[in-house]
Specification:
There is one protein chain. By secondary structure, the chain is an alpha/beta fold. The protein has one domain: Rossmann fold. The protein has 6 helices and 4 strands. It has a 4-stranded parallel beta sheet with strand order 2-1-3-4, with helices on both faces. Bound molecules: ligand DLZ. The site of ligand DLZ has 14 residues, from strand 3 and helix 4.
């Protein structure tokens, strides 16, 4: 999937997001990439003067169950992880479980869930999306922005 076509929405204003409770849940596999994703998400939230709770889980497979628990006390949950394709079908199972699980968390809880799960063929692809020096994209920042934007929208719709 290409990043071409991403929205360039008006930047969020700290005043319109004030009071939102935000949690970040981050997997731990592929440390360098995860460091970039977490930094991107935290810096986006920090710019909005939000103070997220950060929770680490072992792998991406564990993201949904912890996201579900965090959703009970949050207005937005940002889920971050990276899965790199290997030589077995394990990749597909972890990606599907994490993705389907996170969708379910959002629908069951009504809480905004930001999808910051990279599913890549190679380390290079993941590094290029991790918001690190030299990366062309910052998916951690994008997931945080999308989660907060959606939480604001849900707040106005209710
Ligand atoms: C087992 C596994 C493998 C092979 N690869 C990854 C990966 O690339 N990224 C990731 O976040 N987690 C991986 N895991 C770990 C699983 O997500 C999970 O933590 C374990 O299967 C234990 O439940």
């Amino acid at each position: 999937m290409s990043g071409t076509g991403a929205v360039s929405a008006t930047p969020l204003d700290p005043e319109e997001v004030a009071g939102l409770r935000v949690a970040v849940v981050a997997a731990s596999w592929h440390q360098q990439v995860m460091d970039g994703l977490v930094a991107g998400a935290l810096s986006t939230l920090g710019r909005l003067r939000l103070e997220p709770r950060l929770v680490r889980v072992p792998g991406s497979f564990e993201l949904p169950v912890v996201a579900a628990t965090l959703a009970a006390s949050s207005d937005a949950v940002v889920a971050l992880g990276v899965v790199i394709r290997g030589g077995t079908p394990h990749f597909d199972y972890v990606c599907r479980a994490a993705t389907d699980g996170l969708v379910r968390v959002g629908l069951d809880s009504g809480v905004a869930v930001g999808f910051g799960l990279l599913t890549c063929d190679t380390d290079e692809q993941a590094l290029d999306r991790a918001g690190l020096p030299g990366s062309s994209e910052d998916k951690g920042a994008e997931a945080a922005d999308a989660a907060v934007r959606t939480a604001v929208l849900l707040r106005t719709l209710r």
